[in-house]
Each structure stands twice: as C-alpha cells, then as structure tokens.
Design brief:
Blueprint lengths: L4 H15 L8 H8 L3 H13 L3 E4 L5 E4 L8 H9 L23 H15 L4 H6 L3 H4 L14
Antiparallel strand pairs: 1-2
Helix pairs in contact: 1-3, 1-4, 4-5
C-alpha cells in the first residue's frame, strides 16, 4: 500500500498547525508558504479534516484554520483513515465479495494481520510527538519541512 499525496499532505498541514499552535487561526496562504503545498490543494484537504473534527475554521479578515483538538489527540492513524478511506492491504478484506476465494484463501488472514499491525503502529504516533522531533533551526524557519539553514559541513 502506498499512501496518497492527500494523506501525506494532510499530515504535513496538521503538523504545521500543531507547530504553530498559538490559539489563533492561520491563513491558507501562510500554511502554503510554510508547507510548500498549493492553496487549492490545502483547501481540498482541509474539508475532510474539518468534517472529522480535527480542524476548526474561521471566516473573515482574522480567519483561517487551527487544530480543533490537542495535537496529542490526533494520530497518523486517524489522518490516514480520514484521507484514504479504506486502508486494507488487500481489497477482499473490506469487500469479501470481490474474490471467489475469500472463504478458502490461505493469505487473507495474513493481509488482515499486516493491515492491523500497520494501523496499530500509526495509532501510536501523534502530532505532538512528531512536533517534538522538529529541529530547533527548522521550527522557526519559513519551511521547516525542508530546512534551508546553513549547517556546518
């Protein structure tokens, strides 16, 4: 399974909001500048995150987006489930009718175990934990996902 750009970018957007959690909403243009994600794609990604209760939005001159719950309560597993929908490693896990061999398949249980293990692990990683790993030089840089700070050689 390969995560879509939507899952990766949603994680990046939410991490950006966690790193800049000052109790005020952030404009889409500011998020775009810090993350390198285009404004139209951010707007597309924010919708399901708002619907899931991860992001709160405010309209107007002082408007923007911010986390609607603590970063400790948002896991990568949550994000992937919202953005991907189905995350099973084999289609037959969520739709057994797709395969005539479902009842006798010798590998189906293995695909289920692998899917469950992946989701369990993603559920252990939250935004607060990821934010703690951000290098100090990059937390304040314009683009902390690709720190351009001159580092000693």
């Amino acid at each position: 399974m390969k995560l879509s750009a939507k899952s990766r970018y949603a994680s990046r957007i939410l991490l950006d909001l966690a790193l800049h959690d000052e109790g005020i909403p952030h404009r889409v243009n500011d998020i775009a500048e810090r993350t390198g994600i285009t404004v139209p794609f951010i707007e597309q990604i924010i919708k399901p995150l708002k619907h899931a209760g991860m992001v709160a939005s405010k309209r107007g001159a002082a408007g923007g987006h911010q986390l609607s719950r603590p970063a400790e309560q948002i896991t990568l597993g949550d994000i992937v489930r919202i953005m991907e929908g189905s995350v099973e490693l084999a289609a037959c896990l969520s739709s057994p009718e797709l395969c005539d061999r479902t009842a006798v398949c010798l590998t189906r249980a293995a695909w289920q175990r692998a899917t469950d293990a992946m989701l369990r692990e993603l559920d252990t990683i939250n935004l607060a934990e990821l934010a703690k790993g951000a290098p100090n030089c990059c937390q304040l840089a314009d683009d902390y996902f690709d720190c351009k700070e001159d580092l000693p050689v």
